[in-house]
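Lab notebook, bench 4. Still working through the backlog of constructs that have no structural model yet. Next entry is a single chain of 201 residues. Request: give me the structure tokens for it.
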Amino acid sequence: MKTIKKIGLSFALLPLLASMSANAGLFDDFEIIDNAGSNGGEFFEDVFFGGSFGQSEADGFCDASSNCNGEDTSWKVYGGYTLNSLMDLEVAYHSVGDISRTMASGTETSEVSALSISAVGKYEINDTIEAFGKVGATSWTSTNSSGDKDGVGINYGLGAKVSLNDSMKIRAEWEAVPGVETGTGESDISTMSLGLEIGTL
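Model written out:
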């Protein structure tokens, strides 16, 4: 239920992001990267990178405990390449955060991180707003008080970007990695985040 609420919150933020697009011209003279004069070739003109902070939730982690904290602050850094007007390729490192619960056997803690590669499909709503969906593979690591775990699984997500100028975008998204081993069980990890992307349109 909490995850559903977070998905709803992400869509509730879209009108706010859309309203920012009306004033996007205010940022036109503030460019961190200007690829127009770059001698790096066309490849580097299609590279982008960014970072974001948000909230993570381990769905299922607290099912067997009444004294539990299954949420924490999360962050990620990522980079990608624009394949064409409909598709990007993206690599990201995620720090999901720390979660803990009290069981009959004692207190269990878990710290989760992940490295992912994703195909990102995108749709341009107008000149400044872009919606996207993503799916890919994730290598996750779970450092637990009951023993460390690692594995490979899928990831998926959706979100939106608002362009501030030719090289800066605000990015809001929801992402999920199911089946992560957290302690003595499995959890479906989801995150909501807001951040800044730097590159070209």
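Notes after review: Residues 2-21 form the longest helix (20 residues). Strands lie at 47-59, 68-69, 71-82, 87-103, 106-124, 129-144, 149-163, 168-182, 185-198. Flag for follow-up if needed.
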